[in-house]
C-alpha cells in the first residue's frame, strides 16, 4: 500500500515543484483581473477651483474641438461624474429611482495620453475601464450619428445606454420615464464636470440606435440614449 501511494504522489509532487518554480521565476501566467484589457482609473478629485454656480453659468453645448489629447485623469473625472460611486452603500453621482441604476456608460477613446484607442465600458465598482473593442471607432460612431462630424472630432465620446428592465420591473411602464430622467441627470453631470476641467461637450440624440448598439457591442437588453463627444476647444 505504501508503494502505491508513493507512485501516485510522485507526479503530483513534481507538478507542485514545477508550479512553485514558475511562480518564483516570474514565468507563470498572471491570472489577475488587472490585465491589459482592464484599466484602473486614477482616483477622482472631489474639489476644484470652479464652483457649481460658475459651472452652471458657463455650461454650453460646443461642437468644435481641437486635435489635442485628453489626460487619463480627465477621462476618469468625466466618467465618475456620470455614474461614479459616492457612498459605501453604492449610491452614485446621479440620482436613480429606487437606486436601481439602469444606466451603462461606455467611452470611445480616440485621443487620450497613455490609453490605447478602443471602446471601453465603465465599471463604477472599482472605478475602472474594461476594453471591449480595439481601435479608433469614432468615425464609425460619427457615421451612425448621421455623419455629425463633431462625434468623430471629440478626443473621446461618452455613450449612455439603459437597461430599462432594471427599473420597469419595479415601476412598470412609468419606469421608462424615470430612466430618461436619470440619463438627463448623468448628462448634465458630464457637462458640469467638463466645465470644471476646461473641456467642451454636447449631447447628441440623433443617431441610428441599431448601428450605435452594434458598434458599441451592447447587450440585447440595452438601448443607447445619449452620445457625448468631449474635447478641448478654443
Question: CATH fold name of the largest domain, please?
Answer: NADH Oxidase
Number of strands: 7
Order of helices and strands: HEHHEEEHHEHHEHE
Helical content class: 25-40%
Q: Please indicate the count of domains.
A: 2
**What portion of the residues fall into strands of 2 or more residues?**
15-25%
CATH architecture classification name of the largest domain: 3-Layer(aba) Sandwich
Q: What is the straight-line distance between the termini?
A: 83 Å
Poorly predicted parts: 1-34
Number of helices: 8
Sketch the major β-sheet: 7 strands, antiparallel
Describe the protein.
The longest helix is centred in the first third of the chain and has 24 residues, at 2-25. This protein has 2 domains: 1-31; 38-231, 3-Layer(aba) Sandwich (NADH Oxidase). It is α+β, with helices and mostly antiparallel strands and 234 residues long. Helices cover 40% and strands 18% of the residues. Helix 2 crosses helix 7 (174-196) and helix 3 (72-83) runs antiparallel to helix 7 (174-196).
Which terms would index this structure?
single chain, 234 residues, alpha+beta, NADH Oxidase, 2 domains, seven-stranded antiparallel β-sheet, 18% strand
List the helices and strands and how they pair.
Elements: H1 2-25, E1 38-40, H2 52-58, H3 72-83, E2 103-109, E3 118-123, E4 128-134, H4 138-144, H5 149-153, E5 156-162, H6 165-171, H7 174-196, E6 200-201, H8 209-216, E7 223-231
Antiparallel strand pairs: 1-4, 2-3, 2-5, 3-4, 5-7, 6-7
Helix pairs in contact: 2-7, 3-7, 6-7
Amino acid at each position: 500500500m505504501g508503494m502505491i501511494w508513493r507512485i501516485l504522489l510522485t507526479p503530483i509532487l513534481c507538478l507542485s515543484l514545477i508550479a512553485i518554480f514558475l511562480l518564483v521565476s516570474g514565468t507563470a501566467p498572471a491570472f489577475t483581473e488587472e490585465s491589459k484589457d482592464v484599466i484602473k482609473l486614477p482616483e477622482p478629485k472631489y474639489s476644484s477651483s470652479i464652483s457649481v454656480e460658475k459651472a452652471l453659468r458657463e455650461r454650453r453645448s460646443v461642437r468644435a474641438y481641437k486635435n489635442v489629447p485628453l489626460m487619463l485623469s480627465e477621462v476618469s473625472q468625466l466618467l465618475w461624474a456620470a455614474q461614479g460611486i459616492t457612498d459605501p452603500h453604492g449610491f452614485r453621482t446621479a440620482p436613480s429611482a429606487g437606486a436601481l441604476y439602469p444606466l451603462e456608460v461606455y467611452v470611445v477613446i480616440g485621443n487620450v495620453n497613455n490609453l490605447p484607442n478602443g471602446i471601453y465600458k465603465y465599471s463604477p465598482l472599482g472605478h475602472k475601464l474594461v476594453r471591449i473593442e480595439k481601435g479608433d471607432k469614432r468615425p464609425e460612431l460619427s457615421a451612425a450619428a448621421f455623419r455629425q462630424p463633431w462625434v468623430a472630432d471629440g478626443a473621446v465620446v461618452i455613450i449612455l445606454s439603459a437597461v430599462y428592465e432594471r427599473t420597469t420591473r419595479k415601476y412598470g411602464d412609468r419606469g421608462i420615464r424615470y430612466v430618461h430622467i436619470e440619463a438627463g441627470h448623468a448628462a448634465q453631470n458630464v457637462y458640469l464636470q467638463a466645465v470644471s476641467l476646461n473641456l467642451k461637450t454636447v449631447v447628441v440624440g440623433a443617431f441610428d440606435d441599431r448601428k450605435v448598439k452594434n458598434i458599441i457591442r451592447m447587450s440585447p437588453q440595452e438601448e443607447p440614449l445619449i452620445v457625448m463627444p468631449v474635447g478641448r476647444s478654443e
